[in-house]
Amino acid sequence: MKDFDGKVALVTGTTGIGLASARRLAEGGAAILALGIDESANAAMQAVLHRSGAEALVLTTDVSRSDQVEKAIAAGVERFGGLDIIVNSAAVHPYGTATSTDFETWNRAMSVNIGSIYLTAHFGIPEMIKRGGGGIVNVASVQGFACQQNVAAYATTKGAIHTLTRSLALDYARQGIRVNSVSPGSIRTPILEKAARGDGGSDADVEAAFKRFGEAHPLGRIGEPEEVAELIAFLCSSKASFCTGADYKIDGGLTAGIGVR
Ligand SMILES: NC(=O)c1ccc[n+]([C@@H]2O[C@H](COP(=O)([O-])OP(=O)(O)OC[C@H]3O[C@@H](n4cnc5c(N)ncnc54)[C@H](O)[C@@H]3O)[C@@H](O)[C@H]2O)c1
């Protein structure tokens, strides 16, 4: 018997940590409902999950849109018979200060990064309650604790994820729903690659930047999406049965010290 046999997991974001989490939960026996905005990434995820023999439904969805999230969750419940797990990994990462970020970009960050967590909870929790409870994991960031310059909207959303996680945990604890967040340091995914490549950098520039980012972490390297997926899977599983309302850093020691090498 595997950890997630008979479970249905909703994952938002179909690349990076979302993809690794879907693969890990599927390996554990879960059926996967994945929502992403990027059609080619969605097709790639569907193919990977299909090849591994997993049951999967990957739907092109803008997770900031109430109508689309409602429809996608209904389709997943119809296909798989219910919902037990939610992993919220989708996000946008705009750069800018309060003065250089326009209001549209600010609102987009709020609605994708936070609004989507509210929406999957709003439409997903009633389904989880019907199954007697379940687990939600929200992907926050170390930027929710201590942020860099020039990421005002992004860092704000990551701090808000910590708060929304606590709020959901308290409101649904008695219905058997555990809600936690994870806060990664730098992880090798498309979001970080975009930051590393900058304006038209080469693959070698990306690797050099990853090495530089890694040196800021006491473990001396950046993390891999599979390492984050392992923590997410633990928090979704019954092994984490007394864990709720908390954040779990997975940052190679980044936030443990001040300027440590
Ligand atoms: N990679 C890192 O270094 C790092 C560090 C800390 C936190 N995080 C967080 O991890 C999570 C996953 O990011 P990642 O690193 O895997 O990068 P990623 O770019 O691979 O994943 C983000 C995903 O969100 C999807 N997405 C964006 N807008 C969407 C929308 N409106 N509707 C549906 N899907 C949408 C993208 O298509 C993409 O698949 C994010 O919440 C990110 O903030 C990443």
Task: Return the CATH topology.
Answer: Rossmann fold
What is the total number of structural domains? 1
What is the H-and-E element order? EHEHEHEHEHEHHHE
Q: Helix- and strand-based class?
A: alpha/beta
Which CATH architecture? Answer: 3-Layer(aba) Sandwich
Mean pLDDT: 97
CATH superfamily: NAD(P)-binding Rossmann-like Domain
* The CATH top-level class label: Alpha Beta
Shape, principal axes of CA atoms: globular
- The low-confidence runs, each spanning 5 or more residues with pLDDT under 50, are none
Proportion of beta-strand residues: 5-15%
Distance from N terminus to C terminus (CA atoms, Å) equals 43 Å
Share of helical residues: 40-55%
As laid out across the biggest beta sheet, the strand order is 3-2-1-4-5-6-7
Tell me what the structure shows.
By secondary structure, this protein is α/β, with parallel strands linked by helices. The protein has a single domain (8-185, 223-249), classed as NAD(P)-binding Rossmann-like Domain (Rossmann fold, 3-Layer(aba) Sandwich), CATH 3.40.50.720. The chain is built from eight helices and seven strands. It has helices at residues 16-27, 39-51, 66-80, 103-130, 152-172, 190-197, 203-215, 225-236, and strands at residues 8-12, 31-36, 56-60, 85-88, 134-139, 177-184, 247-250. The protein has a seven-stranded parallel beta sheet with strand order 3-2-1-4-5-6-7, with helices on both faces. Strand 4, helix 4 (103-130) and strand 5 form a beta-alpha-beta unit. The chain is globular, with a radius of gyration of 18 Å. The protein starts with 7 loop residues before the first strand and ends in an 11-residue tail after the last strand. The mean pLDDT is 97. The protein binds nicotinamide-adenine-dinucleotide.
